[in-house]
Amino acid sequence: AAQARGGPDGRLPGVRRATARPRACARxxxxxxxxxxxxxxxxxxxxxxxxxxxxxGSVQFTPDGNTLLSPVGNRVSVVDLVQGRVAxxxxxxxxxxxxxxxxxxxxxxxxxxxxxxxxxxNFVHGSxxxxxxxxxxxxxxxxxxxxxxxAVTHGxxxxxxxxxxxxxxxxxxxxxxxxxxxxxVIDVVWSANSMFLATASQDMTVRLWSRxxxxxxxxxxxxxxxxxxxxxxxxxxxxxxxxxxREGVLVSLKFDETPSESPDIGKKALPLYCRPGTWSMQAKxxxxxxxxxxxxxxxxDGASQLFAAGFSGGVFMxxxxxxxxxxxxxxxxxxxxxxxxxxxxxxxxxxxSSEVGQLFVWEWRSETYILxxxxxxxxxxxxxxxxxxxxxxxxxxxxxxxxxxxxxRGSGVSGxxxxxxxxxxxxxxxxxxxxLCFVTFAEHTAPISGVCFTPQGNAVLSASKDxxxxxxxxxxxxxxxxxxxxxxxxxxxxxxxxSGGEIVAASAVSGDYxxxxxxxQTGSVLEVLSGHTSHVQTLRFSPSAARxxxxxxxxxxGLLCVWDLYTSESKGGGTEKLICASSVVCxxxxxxxxxxxxxxxxxxxxQFWNIATGQITGSIxxxxxxxxxxxxxxxxxxxHKRGMKPGQGLNKGAISDGVNLNQCFNSIAYARSGELLLCxxxxxxxxxxxDTTSCMLSSRFSLTExxxxxxxxxxxxxxxxxxxxxxxEAYDVTDSEGEDDTELARAQRRKRQAQVLxxxxxxxxxxxxxxxxxxxxxxxxxxxxxxxAAATTHGVFVFSADGGLGSSGSGAGFMGQVSTFxxxxxxxxxxxxxxxxALDAGEMSRAMILALALNDYGLIRKVYEKIxxxxxxxxxxxxxAPLLPALLWFLSLELKPTRGTPHFQFHVxxxxxxxxxxxxxxxxxxxxxATARVGQALxxxxxxxADVAALCLQLLVELSQRHSxxxxxxxxNLYLLRYLSNAPAGDxxxxxxxxxxPAPAQPVASRASPATPTGA
Length: 1016
Description:
Number of helices: 14
Structural class: alpha+beta
Number of strands: 56
Radius of gyration: 32 Å
Shape: globular
Strand order of the largest sheet: 1-56-55-54
Helix content: 10-25%
Strand content: 25-35%
């Protein structure tokens, strides 16, 4: 869904290619199609959303209680509370999600947005089965206990639908529509037998309905409340009906059967409410909440008879039913609670508040947090991935022996830590594998303008508008160094660290537009570089080993200044100034160390400079590719052309007609291979990825299609706009006066309006409209190019490479995407029956080759498990170069604890055989050479579809993580053997001979057969 790839010629539908001049190589071997390296795949898909935990809507536990579902904008976030990881489903609703409903067997998930559009999602696979517009806002939706029916509130009515099935093409079939309430229905609940329903409404009544027309059943209206009813619940035996009002009054109603003088045996077979009986009020209790606080959300668990209620003042209370005995009371601030959910056994309690973006899971018996996540206020300003390489591997021993910090084990070697800086002045560090934030630094007092890792990966540096640059230690989680200007009167915009991790540079916003250079070890100022005449926007150090101290800075004066900090020529401020097309917005060095620097200009142009020669080697005109959206308050379309008639656009006008000239790429990032350049514009929800060799558009990725945000669509529907050309979304058109949610929203809007300042579009002084604007502030690639992230006002969108066998961060079930069928080669002989036939005949090499060519994960694993250890070198030797990337990717997936098998020694045999047999072939493929080992041009082209170096790095990451996870077990076994060998013998037993000193344990486990799992 995130891809926007075009036809067979590579063009995008409806999108023109970026015009570019042919790139002239400054030096042989630096660029050009003749020596092009293996092309990194540009097929990525959305996998996660970080930094925006909860934004409103209902939350729900899965039936086993181990997973929590919460809406994040128009997507669904899935939090595994046991494994400690989070994933976001790729399915997007039209607007922000308001209601979630999961079946009791965890197969179907219904997500309904605020406008009534719904998606039926296969929860196991994460795919959308069908869509339906309920044509009205939905307040509640419930699946029946037998999963055969669906009840949905529809204004004052209640709709009952048959559950979609495969036999009817996953289509909805409406069963009944029930009416009787005089105001909107707030809640609906099913009885245990799935035959009766109860609804709660704003008209202060509770009504009892039957699913079908039944003899003896009479619809009942229960009017015992004096304020709108917030929720209604059945007891397990369905004899009691509980309802809670907005004022915190709980009413318990009981159904008593009327005794009959002549008992009829047939009446016992009738449903409960079809028998003769009466309803009576059993008890009435009060929550005794703090003054002026109203009930906003509540939840009930029938098995444990626990009841939880959330209030408008940030207080939630836990009660024991049916006497409403208070068990716990906890305050979470002054913000209203928007979601409350109880686990299956009442052990865990989930509470969410959209105003502060906080979601936490509380275990009330032990009074501990199971999960506590909070996003950045006002969006994410910058993002960076941790480095990966030999320098990071030095931390493996320290991280592997860290007690109680699962987020640290193996994170240093993976290069998958993500650091974000927000407008709220906080620096958060996420584990990209789990998607959870495990440390937050709040030392800054102003917005963060730039973040980066040290090359060793053991520290994070951040620049802020408060005039300081801070360094944070990722081992001790503390601020160990603070850098500031000598006068302390400037703010910092960007930050950069040299390749050796010894010096840090930051650009000043005000003052003399200088660049400060500090020593990380001493904290002293080493250089003050002056040469710009305007705001310095970007800083980058060269990754070339020949020029370790080369620094590039770009500013609004249109100059790209090149500094060499380790030579005497630049002492005193001397610099080489390169004149760009316009003001420099962002710069990025080619990671291959070929002295090529990509510079984004204010005109929407990207120029490729060779820093060594001072020449432009290529350029990209990206104005037509940005496609910024139209905001709700814009008086005309995003093309900035008014009154243009249909048919008089690009064909009859100037070349610039229909293009918004007031846009540019404000952030760019290179992939590890240097052949892909990711670009993002502030006002566009699209990310553009260019091929740096041909300077052509490779693909475009859509971050979101959420129409609840402003600036998503290029053309707005005229029927949803006023006569002045402003969208209705910018106004409050709600006519509900007695609704609690509306009253709270209006109260919050009045408070925010009182703090609004003119001209402020971000932060505490912005208006409610600015909060709905979508802006992209920065992009970053991971060290192995398997992931890239985009920092926006609504979180960090993470995309992972799609290699056909699943993404790098995928797991099983809902936590990962289903494998897509991307065969390496497809002929008549490459088929599943041919693989199974070769496997039955004992031709293991042929079966493995066909399975890898077909690229089906299930078939590859089946063949993989049948191969004996002694036959591994023979099978590996028979695999050609075009199929090696698929084999490396499969092994990296098998080494994952959540998806692969525990046969670690078996996997190590395969890895060792690949290195022994195909080491030189992998080296040639990484360099892009077409030699005799790789094969002819056709096979070399097939093998270059994947970045072999990145796949080998990913394999190293998985091996290191498995070793770090098992190191503690091996150490424990070592100490246990020492203890047992020195223990005294018992009575009547001969003392055993002392055991020799055991050798250091190796990270391998015994394996009797390929199909037999082993323990530690």
